Amino acid sequence: MVRLITHNLLACHARGCTSNNFPLRFSDAQIETRKADFNADFIRAFMPKLEWSALVDAAKQLGDTSLPLEAPDMLDEEFLKNLHRVLLEIHIEEGSMTCPNCNHRYPISNGIPNMLLAEDEIA
Amino acid sequence: MSHQYLIVFAQAHNEFRLPELSSVSELHGFTYTLADGSDPQRPFMVIHLASEEHARLLARRCILIKAIYQFYGQGSTYKELHEANRANRALWESYIPKTSFKFIVTAYNHSIPQRRQREVIESFAYMDFLGKIDMNDPEILLGCFEEYPDKHGTTRVKHEGDGSFLQVYFGKLIEEGSARQLIGQFDVKKRVYYGNTSMESEISLLMTNQTLAAPGKLIYDPFMGTGSMAYPAAYFGAFVFGSDIDGRQMRGKGKPPGIIRAAKQYGVAARILDLCTFDVTQNPWRCGELFDAIVTDPPYGVRAGAKRLGRKRELSPERRAKYLEHRKSPRPDDQPYIPPTKPYELSALAADLVILARYLLKPGGRLVFFLPTVMDDYQEVDINSMMCSGMELIANSLQDFGSWGRRLVTIRKTSTVKYPPPSFSPEEAVTSEHVPAHKDFREKYFRGFRTDAPHDNYETAGSVPHYPIHD
Fold it and tell me: What is the three-class DSSP state of B109?
């Protein structure tokens, strides 16, 4: 759990933290890889939603450097399969995600990130 | 060229039949029309479809379809039925020479004595089928269905009123409904992980069909709980994302989390995309237009009340200062900080959910959720008052429990405008003079839906546990 597709969609949402609040930084990440069904249409349709450089950085932080620095224009099968693997098959089971702006630490336990805010952080 | 098909429905959830037919046909990209005089409240319904393949698709996905037949005729008497059937000779004459067949005669709300079943079969002798009768493996199955009025609650002798049916239908079986067996497959009692608010499998499946779940779709449940809707959605091929303010519901005890264990049981764990703990009114989504559907059964306060972050009563300035100081320099032996929560009133939650869905859904995406309501007080405007521009109500089906019920609401995002993230502040709430029947549902429930009982306020309403609970 906490796959990179999820990581790419989560931003720090503490009150007043509106800029430089994405992507969250992993620390002490324990990684597992698990197979997921490949659906080329899903990956292709999801491409426009991705923040590409954030994904590349996150993958690199976890030791995966297979993604190109720029998202390619031509999406061939090999690229989509690799993107599928990075987005859906790498799971962060333990560790935490930290906001680069306000340093709020979101712990990940048993694969489930705790994104709750403290009472002084809610809008 | 369209053909007529006879649907034999399971006798449950009548109001859910048409929404389900519409959703499943939309999912597969075809349409159906009702034949004249078809009443969705009755167990037999005749519809027009462009091809037999469409009938098969319906039978494989609609939870409420028991079987679907090619329609040969109907009548209020056998004379009428046989006339209609003779007129449709073109539909069945190719089976005359050598097709093996089986003939069934059954009734709804009645049992036909065997002697008369034989008479009925013999009355079709003019069809002149020459193939052999094969009770075990026939090439075609012909079905004749008599529909009787509901005699529930009256005492009568066996077979009384035999032959005085409302209507009789006749056709050839296309396909038995194969989706109904999923009700047993997803039975909560056989699930390795569930909670006291888990949704029964038949309703979860009906909800899932309303979402148009299919491979490659992304579906979100913002009140995930024990994941009841996630399993059928993932089973139909969708990726599911779940969040809940209370992670304990999703985790349960042990490893991996309870929802993942149950998903593994159904072979769909790889499609539970992720589970996150957060308050949906304080959500971390980086952008909108992410999901094809949002499906949820929001807690409405009887078994479990909805919560959002915040305090029921704000801290005094002194205590707040102390709290902030403590947050800045926590002691090493502190328990992990658990943020306080306050109740989230149902009508506010429902209106917020619609606004949230407008932000998070892709254009054309669907929001599917249950809304409990007080039967005597419900008005259509209850639903309309929580709608906002860009969202359109497409189905609203009641499940009736007597003095209260719950409505399965399906809303489509019709707008292609990009909306800003909702703030969920009271100032931005959909303001309406109208007080819907589901407002303060919890208090009304515990008062037994009487209007004369003293009015409890929200904080103390939980202290009257003697009313039968069946939510």
Answer: coil
